[in-house]
Predict the 3D structure of the following.
Amino acid sequence: MTTPKPKEHPVALPGLISRLHNAWRALVGTVPEEKAVAPKRGYRKALPQRRECENITFNHEGTDWTASVGRYPDGAIGEVFLSSTKPGSEIIAMGQDASVAASIAFQYGAPPQVVAAGLSRYGSSKPQTAFGFVMDLLTEVKVP
């Protein structure tokens, strides 16, 4: 009996994983240790109930967006949420999903610089997505 071949995932996961791995290796030496690692492996560092929140409005590829950035008391990014003036479209849902996933990663200790450096780009610099645009603004990532 032969084992069925696993179904290929439509998203290029190996490429994404490789980019994230390379971004981590490139940035791990420049990220302060307390921001690079969660306080205890596998535990979420919850944000305080009342926290600083910064709203950033911008236009990316013809769509107006607002990013809300929540921070820990020490100024570290703990959450990023995207919203748009055109609710209901798939691209906006994807931006919101990316921001939720990244927020969870931040709360488990992932450095925002690593997340930003691993996102899709046109060529080697301009971010392809609204979420990438916001992450570049927040982290001032310079991609070679």
